[in-house]
Write a structure and sequence with these properties.
Elements: E1 3-5, H1 9-15, H2 23-37, E2 42-44, H3 66-83, H4 87-90, E3 92-93, H5 97-109, H6 122-130
Parallel strand pairs: 1-2
Antiparallel strand pairs: 2-3
The chain binds iron/sulfur cluster (SF4).
């Protein structure tokens, strides 16, 4: 099995500590993080992914907005530089401890945050990053 993931959610996973839009969203997110922490690989997709699923039925769903597609494009480019692989063509990706550490360091340095511009969670994610990602749930093996 693999988890479908749109590129900018690789950023959001770094700062995830159990907060989100709805109860269903958080429950689903928690299950996905558990699977990643157990070593399950990612399948990179464009458009809505497994994290988006509970939001697709909500009136406030923004998962198909052009601004979110642009967020994916920006994230893919910057994350590719950090991981040394092209996310646009990679198809799949496995997270591990080193990759998560490298991404968190780049996040803290501001090197992969272009996609975060205008995001409603920006201040929270910045504070989490400054706090060393304390209590964040992603801990790939
Ligand atoms: S600021 Fe928004 S896009 Fe950036 S990591 Fe946080 S939730 Fe994701």
């Amino acid at each position: 099995m693999s988890i479908s993931l749109r590129p900018h959610h690789l950023l959001c996973l770094l700062t995830y500590l159990g907060k989100g839009y709805t109860v269903d969203f958080v429950r689903n997110y928690d299950r996905i993080v558990e699977r990643l922490n157990a070593g399950e690989p990612l399948r990179l997709v464009s458009g809505p992914d497994d994290i988006c699923q509970p939001m697709l039925k909500e009136e406030t769903c923004h998962c198909n907005n052009s601004s979110v597609v642009e967020r994916d494009r920006l994230a893919a480019a910057e994350i590719s530089d950090v991981l040394g692989c092209d996310l646009e063509t990679a198809g799949s990706l496995s997270l591990n401890r080193k990759r998560v550490r490298d991404l968190r360091e780049a996040f803290q340095a501001g090197a992969i945050r272009s996609a975060c511009a205008g995001c409603e969670w920006h201040l929270l994610c910045s504070a989490i990053s400054r706090d060393g990602f304390k209590d964040c749930r992603l801990a790939a093996p």
